[in-house]
Amino acid sequence: MKAVLLCLFVCILALVPVHAAEGLLIPEELNGILSRVRAGMTVKEVETLLATAYPGVKSKPGNWSGDAGSMEYKLNDQLVLKIASKVNGDLDKKGSNALVSKDLYLVILNGADRRRITLQLGLMDKADKEKAKPARTQANVDTTSPAQR
Hints:
The protein contains four helices and six strands. With 149 residues, the chain is an alpha+beta fold.
């Protein structure tokens, strides 16, 4: 009886459609814009930049603690872009005095795919540098003896 139930369960699972994520992780329009976001940009400057691909973009303050937090840019019904920001003084009600933080940190929320993509700019630590080194092959091995160098 257990074998029959197990077989039935496997057959039902086989009928359930499984969809892989289709398309790009970051929409092409947004990907072309992200590289132009710079530290110190105002909310209005970011909105103007995003409006080239997302004309209906709307911004609002996200989570804040003191003078640091994030601004949320609703690009369309599915996409929200969060950008780490800071203020000098107090954040106004609309967040219009916020500036993009020098510690660039972006979060893309895709409601259609229910995905969250986080991008953070930072310097590599020693372990990262070791991983990024090219593999040591015969072509890049110094074969001269220490005395010949």
